[in-house]
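As the next step, I selected for study a record pairing a protein sequence with its backbone structure tokens, which the following lines show:
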Amino acid sequence: MAQEKIAPAEVGAAETAPVGRRLTLAVSGLLLGMLLASLDQTVVATALWTIVRDLDPAHGLSRLSWVVTVYVLAATATTPLYGRISDLIGRRPLYAIGVGFFLLGSAFAAVAQSLEQLIAARAVQGIGAGGLIGLTFAVVADLAPGRSRGRYQGYFGAVFAVGSIAGPLLGGFVAQQSSWPDGFASWRWIFLVNVPLGLVGLAMVLPGVPRRTGPPQPVRVDVPGALLLVTGVCAALLVAEWGGRRYPWSSPPLLALAGAAALLLVAFLLWEVRLGRARPEPGRRVAAPLVPLRMFAEPVLRTAVPVAAAVGATTFGAIIYISLYLQITRGLGPAAAGLHLVPMMVGVLLGSTGSGAVISRVGRYEFFPALGTGLAALGLLLLAGLGAASSPLVLGADTFLLGLGLGLVTQVVVLAVQNAVSRPQLGAATGTVTFFRQLGGSFGTAVFGAILTAGLAAEAAGAELVGDPARLRTVAPAEARAAVNAFVDALHVVFLSAAAIMVVAFLLSLRLLVVLRRGIAPAPAG
């Protein structure tokens, strides 16, 4: 069997990885940065109404979704850029740049005087979050030796998932507090608190991240490829965000946007192929492909990417639609609904940290993706059986099982890819897997929303009431029951569709198990 490919350090690439206190501080700072970036994906969801009321009560309703959307767009589109560029110039400066953008956006968001200013600040914040999310796992791979990497990856997977789940609960709690100091709205602290915590995290990380040494590589950043990728991904994500909501799926604006996204992404692939075939000329710096397509010759990466996308779709879709189920069937507010996601959070924590501990102890990880996707598929099938009056205990057991499965697979897929590629491709490979997980979350949420909308289409009155859960308490009981039942029936199809996606991921994970057993030995100790 082949040995782990990235265990040895690349000669002349970086200083010796830190040990002891410096390693602990660096990992703690990276965990803090990951927590802030993952929280900010969802933390404003439950505070949006309060924010709009303060900044633009007359016209803000039509634009409030952009406060969330622009952050996700920026973070998802820039994630692969950070990974690849860090392969060329080092992780340390790129991570500092990412934190800088994130903190700058956070500070401007905290003092925004209009909704337009807040949206712009969230875009800057998202650009930084792309670095925090995309680079963290590559930095951990540089810092953590041998088997201990699995344990650390487990910690980060748990923090990312918990931050994403806990965001709505925390945002709703903060937004409900009174202004402090006088005149400074409580929701502004959602963003302002990032600044001191982010600076502390950066101060902890930088001393422990090795500096790149040796002569600079005779390559330059692929700027045209970056522009094609970012614009193509943003256009594709806007199709997912607007389809069935702002525009019908068959409307000319949406079809034109989808066509533009396809053309841009095809142009990006053709450009990357051209760069990959180019021969360097003496004395000239050549552009390195942003996404080295040769990576996809590695069967582990080819198999892991769709698994990561399925996990992203299921994670974010479950958070949104379980919360919506609780608001409509129980009449809970978004923050209270977030409390019912605690069992899912506990499951993710146990799965992620438990798998990391096992990997650290025995050095084997190939069976975790199949086990995790299998448990997640079972949890989704059980969620598809929820009724309007299902007990909180049943819901808690189902979401715990789903969270446990997601925790077992999320970071192990990243670890498998890192162990399969060469060190010069480590950042690009890690960024690619993380990118597809984020992309899966965006498209999965849109697809599940379209399925729910289609299921409610036959019940016009029910659909209108479900779109505004507060109205359910103002209509006749019989009308409210009919609307709730129509929603639950449509939600069954959503969870069944998610389960089908996860079954496909399970089958791919079985293929990944075969590939890993055939080609990778246990991770070395140390």
